Amino acid sequence: MSTTAAPRKTPVRAAVASFLGSAVEYYDFFLFGSAAALIFPKIFFPSDDQAALVMSFATFGFAYIARPVGAVFIGHFGDRIGRRRVLLFTLLLMGLSTFAIGCLPTFEQIGWAAPALLVVCRLLQGLSASGEQAGASSLTLEHAPDDRRAFFTSWTLTGTQGGQILAALILIPIVAMPDSIKLTWGWRIPFWLSAVVVIVAYVIRRGLHETPEFEETKAEGRISRIPLIALLRDHWRDVLRVICCAFIAAVSTVFGNLAIAYGVEVGLNAAITLWLVVVANLVAIATQPLFGTLADRIGRKPVFIYGALASAVLMPFYMLSMGPGREVLTFALAVLTFSCGYAAANAVWPSFYAEMFSTRVRFSGVAIGTQLGFLMAGFAPSIVTALGGVQQGGWVVISVFTAVICVIATVSALTARETKDIPTAQLGTFGENVTRANPVAA
Fold first, then answer.
1. How far apart are CA 127 and CA 82, in angstroms?
2. How far apart are CA 125 and CA 29, in angstroms?
């Protein structure tokens, strides 16, 4: 053991820093996804029709192409030089790329170069996002006490709710503007405002020290020179398991992006569809820490599996409720589906996935596994739209798609070990080939 004292654990501060980082990421991502559904088809493509909507949703999905590639590089440095410094980089990159989107010229001004530049900015967003949640989950888990890891790490994903709420609240007055304002300069305001959120999160995250678990691993000479090699050698089954479990994230894009487009198609006002997202996410801010606490008591697997199966069962009822004159029922089912169903899986996956890996490869394992699985979430809007999911009767396509991904996530979760009672220092070490006191061990 090292004679150098590791820094003390600061779980609350780590949870706040992770909450704000995720809020920035999902403010930017939800903002882009909503704009892809409601605004971008009109300003970045030559026509305002179904083809433009499919292409617009495809730009949303492009970020998920960059994410697996970014996960390898960002995960490498997160496991080599530490969680904190890498998370500062991802935060700034997300903020700059989102601000740049608000400065882009439109199709009318520069033709096809406009969507091309939009894709470039979206790829940079994806590169940033590839390490944000994995790093935040690793940082919070390694600062948390052993018996409350699920609770504290749940705040990483609760930050996604905060970001989505903020983005939706800012978008609501924007979509209510006349087209002459909304489609010229009005749509740019939410993208520019992301700079404010980034500055606040950066100040808080900068003051957070590195995790005791990482510092101890570094002091003992157990840092991998190439974490990817150690990961694929010792944890390849866990990587595959996380990939399949991470399909569950597509429920969020279905709820937050596809449902908006479908709701408008069946006669709901665009502002009402955004309020559905706000209300469901507000309730999820309260329910997700509760699900995290429950996971600390009964285990990660049962809570995650409940969330996946509840999403599959409730989604068709939520979609069928949409339409003029049924708004109260739609709001109630939105809360049930998202806040009381999907929120369970969403709250527990940061601890569930991160606890599959040891400290020396945790950042890489969670980043690579989730980002490959998140490809399903990224392209869900364009795939389902192409299959007719946002047309009249499209609730069937959306419901079947949701059920399939939820079953895949459930089956994968059933194969995982329960990690609730394993001390943090021993997580993911079973069968791991580690050479101590060797700082360049693979």
1. 18
2. 8
CB neighbourhood size of 265 (10 A): 14
> What is the rounded CA–CA span in Å between residue 379 and residue 253?
9
Q: SS3 for 180?
A: helix
The amino acid at residue 401 is F
Distance CA(63)–CA(129), nearest Å, equals 9
The percent of residues in the chain predicted with pLDDT above 90, rounded, is 34
Read off the pLDDT of residues 391-431 as tens digits, 9 standing for 90 and up: 777 788 889 999 999 999 999 999 999 999 999 888 877 65
User: What is the average pLDDT across 287-298?
Assistant: 96
Closest of 304, 278, 327 to residue 167, by C-alpha: 278
Domains belonging to the chain, first-starting first, are: 11-424 (1.20.1250.20)
The closest alpha carbon to 211, from 337, 53, 47, 78, belongs to 78
For residue 253, the number of C-alpha atoms closer than 13 Å in the C-beta half-sphere is 29
36-71 as b/e: b if 16+ CB within 10 A = bbbbbbbbbbeeeeeebbbbbbbbbbbbbbbbbebb
Residues in the chain: 442
Give the up-direction half-sphere exposure of residue 131: CA atoms within 13 A in the CB hemisphere.
29
Task: Quick: pLDDT tens for 6-39.
Answer: 456 788 888 888 888 888 877 887 788 778 878 8
Cβ distance 115 to 107 under 8 Å?
A: yes
Q: Using DSSP, state whether 48 is helix, strand or coil.
A: coil
In angstroms, the Cα distances linking 266 to 22, 136, 175, 277, 320 are 32, 39, 18, 17, 10
Mean pLDDT in residue range 143-164: 89
Tokens of 12: 């609350």
**Phi, psi for 45 (deg, rounded to 5):** -135, 160
Q: Is 70 exceeded by the pLDDT of residue 165?
A: yes
The token pair at 66 is 């960059």
* For residues 250-276, average pLDDT: 82
Mean pLDDT, the chain, integer: 86
Query: What is the per-residue pLDDT across 175-223, written as a single tens digit (0 to 9) for each?
Result: 888 888 888 888 899 899 888 878 887 887 777 777 788 888 888 778 8
Supply angle C-alpha 350, 355, 361, rounded to 5.
100
